[in-house]
Amino acid sequence: MTQRQVLLEMNHVKKSFDGVQVLSDISLAVQEGEVVSIIGPSGSGKSTLLRLATLLERLDDGELIYMGEAAATSENGKSVYASKEKLKQLRKVFGLVFQNFQLFPHFSVRKNITDALVHVEKVSQEEADSRAEKLLAQLGLSDKADNYPYQLSGGQQQRVSIARALALQPKILFFDEPTSALDPELTGEVLKVIKELAREHMTMIIVTHEMQFAREVSDRILFMEQGVVVQEGTPDEIFENPVERVREFIGKLG
Amino acid sequence: MIETGLLLAQKNIDLLRMFSQLGEGFVVTLEIFVLTLLFSLPLGLLVSFGRMSKNCVIRSITKAYISVMRGTPLMLQIFVVYFGPYYLFEVSFGTGYRFPAVIIAFVLNYAAYFAEIYRAGIESMPKGQYEAAEVLGYSKLQTFVRIILPQVIKRILPPVTNETITLVKDTSLAFTISIAEMFTIAKQIAAAQTTMIPLIGAGVFYFIFNLLVALGMEKLEKSLDYYR
Q1: Does any CB of chain B come closer than 8 Å to the CB of residue A4?
Q2: Which of the two ends of chain A, N or C, has the fewest CB atoms closer than 10 A to its terminal CB?
Q3: How close does chain B come to A54, measured CA to CA in Å?
């Protein structure tokens, strides 16, 4: 395999809330084009890991590095964050898809996708609109451009939120349980889109409960429990040779 | 016979004059109403920021301010604003200060109520909306102006309508420092001619005005119905 760029590095990450250790010494490196799934029971700290990576929460200790540039470094057992400007710049590296979409309800589908482009990235409205059109076509939502989020099904809303994230052309896309808020019959259309992105070698980190999906789409799977990585490996390694605890978990889910 | 005919004619003229005088008073009422809204709506937003500030000094001050404004009669506040400068600093602005004093008192009072309405609206917004905006790169100001405030306005329209209707009626309190607004004039005519008619007339003016206010707010609410 050729040397690929490491896009994200998290080293010895620690995080606690109100004295309760949620993550203890987690490390993770993700290369360009890689799809990494994080699975594990509720409360294992997987969503916290995602929130730390996306700068929505702050590390207690450890390093957070995007494309070789530090968002946070560890000094004397405490994380020290880079300047606001630096973080703003590093934020452009990634996008995040939320569990419950978090579309802006007062914006049409098109505006949800273009607004940040125009007002944050200062892209022209025409350019933003044409990008939105392409993305909507790609995700099979062309006829929904002028609708408002409440008029869409959950699956459609989640696809719009994926389009919104993709419009900013991130190098990494994070997914926080992207199908957990959806009816079972709607999860398929969202998972299909993610698989499509995987085929196009989009770098993705996916927190999910969908075991079969994780197995199909991932290059690597992390099983987390109680703030530590219990097992890490290729899907085959995880599903064919699970350690005791992982076997238990996979078994329970059938 | 002739005398009663004359009396009747005079009564008719009086009724006409009465309504034209009430109308003049209504213009002042309208001025108080418009100026109060114009200043208290933005000031209320500012106060709500203070109320939600991370700085505990600012938070305590605004909290005390809101508490006093809501906890004491508006009539008393009008007196304090009007007479306060004289008793405290022996400064007298003369009768020309009456109207500004009323506006200041109304604005300070209504800003406190609006601040609490804004706060309820802002605090009802899901945290995820802020987080989504943050990840997309919006600045704090952009997040508030583009994402949060428009949704807050939709949410707070019903309580704002309530306050606005109360304000229409509260303008009559300006009579306490003899501002020539509608209620003051109605009372004067009623006292001079020993009749209820001007008071009832004023009541009709207030009622119709409030109908229009309610209608306008309903239109505004409808215009924001395009999303949920």
Answers
A1: no
A2: N
A3: 7
Q: Which of residues 69-108 of B touch A (CB under 8 A)?
A: none
Q: Which residue of A has its CA nearest to B148?
A: A104
Query: Which chain A residue's Cα is nearest to B129?
Result: A102
**Is B19 contained in some domain?**
no
Q: What is the pLDDT of residues B78-134, one digit of tens each?
A: 999 999 988 888 877 778 889 999 999 999 999 999 999 999 999 999 999 999 999
Q: Is residue B100 part of a domain?
A: yes
- Overall number of domains in chain B: 1
In this structure, is residue B149 part of a structural domain? yes
- Say if the Cβ atoms of A115 and B135 lie within 8 Å: no
Residue of chain B minimizing CA distance to A118: B138
| Every domain of chain A and the residues it spans | 106-168
Would B18 be classed as within a structural domain? no
Q: Domain range spanning residue B64?
A: 26-181
H or E element in which residue A157 lies: helix A154-167
